[in-house]
Amino acid sequence: MIEPSGLAEEKDLQNSLRAFKPKFLDDLIRVGRAFDGGYLVNERGIRLSRYLLSFGVNYDWSFEADFRKRKLDARILCFDPSVSKERLRDEIVDALKQILSARCILEALSLNFRGVRRKFQVLKHSLSLYSDFSSFFSGDSVRFFCKGVSDEKGPNFFIISEVFQMIPADRLEENSVFVKMDIEQSEFRVLPSLLKFEKYLTGLVIEFHGLDRLWPDFAELMNQLKANFEITHVHGNNFSELIPNSSTPKVLEVTFLKRSLIRDDELQREAVVYPIPGMDQPNDRSKEDYALYF
Question: Which of 74, 189, 232, 250 fits a disulfide with 151 by CB distance 3.0 to 4.6 angstroms?
Answer without folding.
Answer: 189
